[in-house]
Amino acid sequence: MRTRGIVFLIILVSGLIGCSKPASAPLPTITPGAAEISTAPVLPPTLIPSPTPAGTPTPFVSFQVNPAVDGLKLRLGPGFLFDALRLLDKDALLTVQGKAPGGEWIRVITTEGAQGWVFAELLTSNVDLQAIPVIEPEGLVVLRGRVFDVLGSPIQGIGFEIKSDGTGNSTTAVSDAAGEFFAFLPPGTSGTWTVTQTAVSCKANVWADANCSTYKPGYSGTVEPPSRTVTLPQQGILEFVWR
């Protein structure tokens, strides 16, 4: 009986061992084949061009002009009240440096190196003298005015006399394309001056015909007020209305 029990125990143990699962084997390492490697092309980075810098103004290139008359005065400043440095003949070569505000006076240098201002209307030039750079004169007394019509449009070519009530000295000025005029006076100029409208240039934008004989419709050919008085140094801009 004891022998049977031992045999039964041996059979039971053998059965349990036979039913147990073998230990898991390690997973094999998988090396990707060629078909598993991405073949998508690598695109180069998109190049965004830098913005083009704004164009810089063309530098002014000086040029030469001639006096239209013999005896043209090369003046110390841009106005008829400045001393004359010398007289220029028609064959004189003058290198243009710029213009004063208003465009009536041109700064030039002679072949001998003398620098000064000449009246633009008395120059012969193949270049538009109104298209050259502006040079702001320094240290001068400046009287400014403006002419416009009843609609506010600038009036060009209106002439004024600027006269000292004390000394009687006088100069002139003409309104430019913006309707502004400038009278440049020597340093230290003071006192009461009267500004009077005296002329209408044939270049004025008020004419209906090329002969400058008929005003445009709606224009009577008068300025209001006809004159104004100012005490120098001036404060503000004198205004005139063309009617």
Describe the structure.
The structure is a single chain. Among the domains are: 61 residues, SH3 Domains (SH3 type barrels), CATH 2.30.30; 102 residues, Sandwich (Immunoglobulin-like), CATH 2.60.40.10. The chain is globular. The chain is mainly beta. The chain starts with a helix and ends with a strand. The longest helix is centred in the N-terminal third of the chain and has 18 residues. The chain contains one helix and 15 strands; from the N terminus they run αβββββββββββββββ.
Which key phrases capture this entry?
243 residues; SH3 type barrels; 7% helix; mainly beta; Immunoglobulin-like; four-stranded mixed beta sheet; disordered N terminus
How would you summarize what this structure contains?
The protein is mainly β and 243 residues long. The protein is built from 1 helix and 15 strands.
